[in-house]
Amino acid sequence: MRVLGSAVLSMEFLIMGFAMLLAKDQHDSSVIIYGAVVMFLMIYAIRLLKKRSGWILGSLLQLAMTAYSFVVPSMAIINILFMGLWVAAIIIGRKGEAARAALLAQGNPADRKPSEK
């Protein structure tokens, strides 16, 4: 779950940088500052993905990216794609963690006695 979430956030970090390049010529500096704050919060959220607060912050940053797509309209389609990837990271990550926990609960088959196999 953490790997997928960090991949989505790190790609969004790069996309936000490109969106700021598009916005710098047409908007004032407050838009650039907002974009920079969102970018650095993404890096912070990647570090927090071990905890639930990281996932909450990542979800809030998805909304912040949606707000930035009003400034740079060409970013709206990319934002929709990455919101889908974020939801997929949560859903697939939970399924993967459940499968891993089930495998760990079974134990290593090589450690069993021949009569248990």
TrEMBL record:
<dbReference type="InterPro" id="IPR025327">
    <property type="entry name" value="DUF4233"/>
</dbReference>
<keyword id="KW-0812">Transmembrane</keyword>
<feature type="transmembrane region" description="Helical">
    <location>
        <begin position="67"/>
        <end position="92"/>
    </location>
</feature>
<dbReference type="Pfam" id="PF14017">
    <property type="entry name" value="DUF4233"/>
</dbReference>
<keyword id="KW-0472">Membrane</keyword>
<keyword id="KW-1133">Transmembrane helix</keyword>
<feature type="transmembrane region" description="Helical">
    <location>
        <begin position="30"/>
        <end position="47"/>
    </location>
</feature>
<feature type="transmembrane region" description="Helical">
    <location>
        <begin position="6"/>
        <end position="23"/>
    </location>
</feature>
<protein>
    <submittedName>
        <fullName>Unannotated protein</fullName>
    </submittedName>
</protein>
